[in-house]
Amino acid sequence: MTSRIDEALPRLSPDDFRLMRDLIYSYAGLRFEDDARVLFERRLADRLAAVGVPDYGAYYKYLRFSPLGPAELEEAVERLTTKETYFLRQEYQLRAFEREILPRLAQTTAQSRRLFVWSAGCSTGEEAYTIAILIHRSGLFHGHEVRVIGSDISKVAIARARRGIYRHGSFRATPPEFVTQYFHETSEGSQVVDDIRRMCHFGQLNLLDAARVPFVGRVDVVFCRNVLIYFDVNSRRRVIDAFYERLLPGGYLLLGHSESLLNVTTAFELVHLSDDLVYRKPVSSERWDGGAR
Ligand SMILES: C[S@@+](CC[C@H](N)C(=O)[O-])C[C@H]1O[C@@H](n2cnc3c(N)ncnc32)[C@H](O)[C@@H]1O
């Protein structure tokens, strides 16, 4: 049903919608179906006035050909992405991470004394801080260099992640003791305590940007949850290949509950944990890389 508000919005023709959709896809890997035209109209309406163009045809040309087009494309993607997230999301998987994966990693990293975890598509940071809290409370990595790297294509989300201040909605699945132990109250909401914030490092990153992804370094675990659902199979392949490259041999890949590597790759092995199935880069997969990590 179209509302009065929708009727007042500038119209996006099917042709312009297809052009815009393809542009968003080639930049961010996000796949939108035909019924997303209304979503585009709603979420991008204010951008026409913001960049001073009369209609979507002109907006598309601005995105493609203006020197400010690349920055505006980021703005458009900012509005079209779903950033839904909260602490302790997919609790069964986090339990498996805490009880089974972390103890294994404590053994395999005993020599290197280094644990790097990447939250790829971390949105506003709840996932990265959750991971840091689980590592911290495991008590298994004292004396290790521990880093949780949170990245997202959204600049706005990354700025919020860095502040680490959250309101009620982020705690919808959080027991009270988790909040009292790892947050302190501020006038704007509950902020993650410094010990945990120090473990987390956030940066804006498009997962399809093959030139910049290597800056993440080599990691022991990749969490990429509820991101691949927005990609088509080609974008998934590109991103999963990048994760494979970034993971150390024996490193783990944890996806969202509705996501899998089916039809994407067979390079990972499936590991059966008591509460979950996760992927692992085979230990025997190391190529010689000069010892770089
Ligand atoms: C639904 S959130 C998932 C947040 C968190 N991983 C979770 O499961 O709660 C999806 C995130 O993926 C990000 N995203 C979408 N396309 C991306 C891309 N090409 N590169 C990096 N992040 C992307 C969005 O900005 C959004 O913050």
Name some characteristics of this structure.
single chain; 293 residues; alpha/beta; Chemotaxis Receptor Methyltransferase Cher, domain 1; Rossmann fold; 2 domains; 7-stranded mixed sheet; 3-stranded antiparallel sheet; 11 helices; 10 strands; 42% helix; globular; disordered C terminus; binds S-adenosylmethionine
Brief overview, please?
With 293 residues, this protein is of the alpha/beta class. The chain has 11 helices and 10 strands.
Structure characterization notes:
By secondary structure, the protein is an alpha/beta fold. It folds into two domains: 77 residues, Chemotaxis Receptor Methyltransferase Cher, domain 1 (Orthogonal Bundle); 195 residues, Vaccinia Virus protein VP39 (Rossmann fold, 3-Layer(aba) Sandwich). The protein is built from eleven helices and ten strands. It has a seven-stranded mixed β-sheet with strand order 6-2-1-7-8-10-9. The protein has a three-stranded antiparallel β-sheet with strand order 3-5-4. Helix 2 runs parallel beside helix 4 and helix 6 crosses helix 7. The longest helix is centred in the middle third of the chain and has 18 residues. The protein is globular, with a radius of gyration of 21 Å. The C terminus is likely disordered. Bound molecules: S-adenosylmethionine (SAM).
